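Researcher: Let's do a round of design. I'm pasting the structure tokens now; please hold your answer until I've finished.
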């Protein structure tokens, strides 16, 4: 059986429709990747197999968290009450999860929580809890850290875990079975189902190394709906292509057109969120009525800003001394329920990095760095010097710690190893990943926006704001705004700022 991409689904189904009867459909179909695309492909395949009029008795949609894999196999081996195809479907399946994926599930849960996608974060955490054979009641009080076995490297701060667990319990998020059900399903696939019975699975990710995936490739249809979610230029190009494909499909169905400026503004409002992008387009189609063209003013009147801004947008604005953007992203992140102390900590961390980069550029070894040099020259001539500087700094900090007798005695009393000091010093390095030093290249460029004295003063400003937030009843937003104003200075040319705001969806909405 083939493995195809979501772009090939229409052609594949058209070819099957030309065959006689239902013999062309694969006994099992796996659709994985981007959620919105998976849902679209799932509906296309289900429509081709079972028209809506036949689904009441011939299609069973299962919730994997409620139904075990044994129940799934039993249904697949049970004949339909009516003639024709029988489809058993499991959406958002976690069948590929195993204990080896535990760290990945925790990382997904934390990333979704930071983006305020609570339902998605809850599903990932529930999958992890299920792998451990636990329930929500087991995770009360002091038991949580011990049972979940999440270390600091995975992000074990109690606050986010406690908040997410409380949200899961309030939503009634179900915990899937803890056993590794992939082996059970694999054996059922190898044995085969009764003729006419079919399984459709959708999942956000799969592990191609697992034997279950290989069996699915051999005996069924696999549809790859993945879209790179990174920030690299290549990833952005693919995301842009997917957005335009979605745009053209919706506009073609409704016989509408969209102004280029309106398209750019809509993308800025939603980011790469296909569901929000599509929903806004559908609203715009209804809003314009019989009119064929959708304008920028229509988008400003109707579309809502749903884009989830990452924290690095705020820290990037600070590093570039762009007060307009810094204030905007601060407001957006606070509106997204990010904690003020979390944002303040991110700003402090950014200033520390800038100070470290600035210290390098003004040092004797930093003479190899020249503002305006190309990335290729930076990678070949500056990165080796940066690595040597990092090693010298780590050694110096280790020597300082070892030289402090009181610290040394306390460490010996606790039975600490000498390696702890070196590990603590790793936070103060510039080149953490020598294979991908481009972020360091950008950091050195942005460090040129400040003097050493300004960066030291920025640390003092943020420290004062932190103290006020923790010890007095001040308005957090006003405190951080005041700190940004003092660090970044004036916002620059008002006209230019207004142009940037219009370009990225931050302009004022006209009264409709």
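Researcher: That's everything. Go ahead.
Model: Designed sequence:
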């Amino acid at each position: 059986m083939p493995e195809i991409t979501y772009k090939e689904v229409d052609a594949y189904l058209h070819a099957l429709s030309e065959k006689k009867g239902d013999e062309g459909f694969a006994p099992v179909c796996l659709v994985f990747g981007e959620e919105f695309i998976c849902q679209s492909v799932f509906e296309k395949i289900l429509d081709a197999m079972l028209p809506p009029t036949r689904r009441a008795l011939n299609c069973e949609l299962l919730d994997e968290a409620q139904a075990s894999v044994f129940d799934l196999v039993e249904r697949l081996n049970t004949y339909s009450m009516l003639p024709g195809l029988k489809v058993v479907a499991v959406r958002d399946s976690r069948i590929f999860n195993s204990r080896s994926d535990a760290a990945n599930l925790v990382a997904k849960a934390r990333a979704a929580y930071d983006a305020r996608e609570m339902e998605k974060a809850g599903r990932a955490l529930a999958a992890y809890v299920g792998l451990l054979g636990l329930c929500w009641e087991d995770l009360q009080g002091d038991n949580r850290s011990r049972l979940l076995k999440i270390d600091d490297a995975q992000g074990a701060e109690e606050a986010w875990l406690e908040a997410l667990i409380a949200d899961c319990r309030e939503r009634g998020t179900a915990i899937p079975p803890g056993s590794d059900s992939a082996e059970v399903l694999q054996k059922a696939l190898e044995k085969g189902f009764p003729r006419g019975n079919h399984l459709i699975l959708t999942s956000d990710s799969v592990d191609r190394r697992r034997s279950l995936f290989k069996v699915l490739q051999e005996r069924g249809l696999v549809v790859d709906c993945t879209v790179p979610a990174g920030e690299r230029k290549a990833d952005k190009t693919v995301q842009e292509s997917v957005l335009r494909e979605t745009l053209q499909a919706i506009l073609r169905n409704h016989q509408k057109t969209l102004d280029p400026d309106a398209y750019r503004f809509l993308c800025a409002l939603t980011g790469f969120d296909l569901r929000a992008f599509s929903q806004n387009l559908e609203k715009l189609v209804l809003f314009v009525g019989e009119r064929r063209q959708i304008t920028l003013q229509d988008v400003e009147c109707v579309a809502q800003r749903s884009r989830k801004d990452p924290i690095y947008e705020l820290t990037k604005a600070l590093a570039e001394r762009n007060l307009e953007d810094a204030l905007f992203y601060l407001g957006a992140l606070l509106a997204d329920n990010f904690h003020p102390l979390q944002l303040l900590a991110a700003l402090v961390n950014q200033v520390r990095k800038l100070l470290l980069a600035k210290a390098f550029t003004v040092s004797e070894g930093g003479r190899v760095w020249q503002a305006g040099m190309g990335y290729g020259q930076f990678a070949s001539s500056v990165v080796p010097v940066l690595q040597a500087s990092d090693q010298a700094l780590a050694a110096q900090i280790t020597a300082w710690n070892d030289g402090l007798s009181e610290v040394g005695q306390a460490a010996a009393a606790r039975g600490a190893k000498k390696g702890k000091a070196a590990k603590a010093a790793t936070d103060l390095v510039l080149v953490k990943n020598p294979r991908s030093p481009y972020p360091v290249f950008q950091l050195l460029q942005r460090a040129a926006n400040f003097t050493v004295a300004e960066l030291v003063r920025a640390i003092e400003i943020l420290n004062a704001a932190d103290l006020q937030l923790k010890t007095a009843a001040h308005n957090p937003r006003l405190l951080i705004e005041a700190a940004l104003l003092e660090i970044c200075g004036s916002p620059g040319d008002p006209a230019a700022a207004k142009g940037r705001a219009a370009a990225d969806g931050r302009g004022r909405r006209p009264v409709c």
